[in-house]
Amino acid sequence: MFNWLNKLVGKGSAADAAPPSDEAHTAAPDEGAVDEVSLEIDEDVSETEEPEITDKNLQASEAPWDLGSCAPSLEPEALQHDLVKHLEAEWDNARTQHEREFLEALMATVWKGEMEIPAFPEAARKLDELLQQGRDPTMMEVVRLVERDPALVQRVWTRASSAEFVVPPKGLHFAVSRIGFDELWRIAIQACMQSALFRVPGFQDSADRVRMFGLVSAEVSSELFGERRGAAYLAGMLHDVGKLLVYRHITFDLVATPSSAAMVERLATTMHPSFGVLVSQSWQLGDEVAAVLGFHHDPMKAPEDYQRMVRIVRAANLAVYAVDAEKRGMKVNPLPAIKAVSQGLIANKDAMGIARKAFDHVQSLM
After folding, report:
1. SS3 for 315-350, per residue?
2. Which of 9, 32, 55, 302: CA 20 to 30 A from 189?
3. What's the number of domains the chain is made of?
4. Are 336 and 343 within 8 A, CB to CB?
C-alpha cells in the first residue's frame, strides 16, 4: 500500500516493522458542553498514583488534562514505529484524498526523522550556556550576546519599557540590568514560541492556544519547581508543542471540511506527546524536557529519573487548565488531582493561585 513511502525514505515497508508497543492512542470523547462539571476522584490514592478524572460531558478543548496519551518511549526508533502504526490505521479509515495526503505527509516526516521545523533560537541556547557557567557572567558579556540578535534586542527593549516602569531605559545595558538575567533568559527562550512553527494558517486559533497555555504553564511550572529559569520553565512552555508539528502538515483544502478538521484536532490531541518528544530531540533539549513532553499525561509512566519534573509540570497543567475553565464560567475542582500528582513535591504552594497570577501576567505581555 505504501510504495510511495518506501521510495521516499528508502526503507522497507512500514507495515513490516514490528511496532514496540500495542498500546492504542486514546480517542477524543464525544462533544457536549455543560455548565458544571463533576470531577470524580478516587479518594484512595497512593503516593505514586494519579487519580482518575472523569469528565465525560466536557468538550475536548475544555478538559485537556484528561485527554492525550503517552509516548511509548524516548527512543526515536520506537517512536517512529509507534506513530507510523497508528497513522497507517488512520490512513485506512481516511474518507478523502486530502486526509490521505495529510497522513502520508506526517508518516514521511516521521520516517525521515527530519522534523522540518525552525531551529531552536541560537541566542537562547548561547545565553543558557553562558548563565550555566561556574561563574557569574559580566553585564558586558551578556549585552554583547543579546546585541547579536536584533529580534531579541527588540523584545528586551519592549519588556524593559513596559508600563510597570516609569521611564524607558537609556540603552540596552540599562534595559538588561532593569529586567535581570532570569527575565532575560525567559525572553530569549520564549523566542521559539514566536517562530514559524507557531504560524499555521487554517489552524491559527489552535496554535495560539498552545502558545498561550505553554507560556502560562511555564510560569506555573517554574514557580512550583522553585527556579526562575531552567528545565521546568522550558518543559512547561513546550509541553504541547507536538500539536504544532501535526498542524504544520495541514492544507486549506483539508480543513475546509469540518470532519477533516476534527480528525486533525483528534490526532493532535492523542499523538502530541510522541511528536513532542521528536521536536525536543530535534532541538536537542535533553531527556528531562523530552520526558515531560512525552509523559505529562501520565507521569508515572515516565522514566524514573525524570518523574519528579514530569509530576510538577502535570500539576501545573491541571491548575492552568482549571483556571481557564473558571474564566469561562465552569465549575471544576482539580485540587485533589493536583495534590495526588504533586504529593511531597510542592509543599504548601497554591498552584491555582499561582496559575491565576500567571494568566494575568502573560496576558498583560501579549
Report:
1. HHHHHHHHHHHHHCCCECCCHHHHHHHCCCCCCCCC
2. 302
3. 2
4. no
DSSP string, 266-305: HHHHHHHHHHHHHHHHHTT--HHHHHHHHHTT-GGGS-GG
CA-CA-CA-CA dihedral for 276, 282, 283, 287, to nearest 10? 70
pTM of the model: 0.77
Helix (H, G, I), strand (E, B) or coil at 1: coil
Kindly state the greatest CA–CA separation across the chain: 66
Note whether 359 and 216 are within 8 A (CB): yes
**pLDDT for 310-325, tens place per residue?**
999 999 999 998 999 8
**Do 227 and 331 lie in a common domain?**
yes
- What are 179-227's pLDDT values in tens digits? 999 999 999 998 888 777 778 877 888 889 999 999 999 999 999 998 8
3-class secondary structure, 47: coil
Answer yes or no: do 160 and 224 share one domain. Answer: no
| Per-residue cell: 143 | 549585552
Say if residues 110 and 83 touch (Cβ distance below 8 Å).
Answer: yes
**9/99 same-domain check:** yes
Where would I find the H helices in the chain? 3-9, 76-92, 97-112, 122-131, 139-147, 150-160, 172-189, 204-225, 231-238, 242-247, 252-255, 258-282, 287-295, 307-327, 335-341, 351-365
Q: How far, in Å, CA of 340 to CA of 349, rounded?
A: 14
Query: With 50 as the cut, is the pLDDT of residue 24 above it?
Result: no
Q: Which domain holds residue 133?
A: 122-190
**Residue found by looking up cell 513532542 in the block:** 276
What is the Cα–Cα distance from 218 to 309, expressed in whole angstroms? 12
The partner residues of 36 in beta bridges, in order of sequence, read 331
CA distance 274 to 74: 8
Per-residue DSSP letter, 199: -
What is each CA distance from 210 to 30, 126, 233, in whole angstroms? 21, 26, 15
In a shared domain, residues 113 and 143:
no
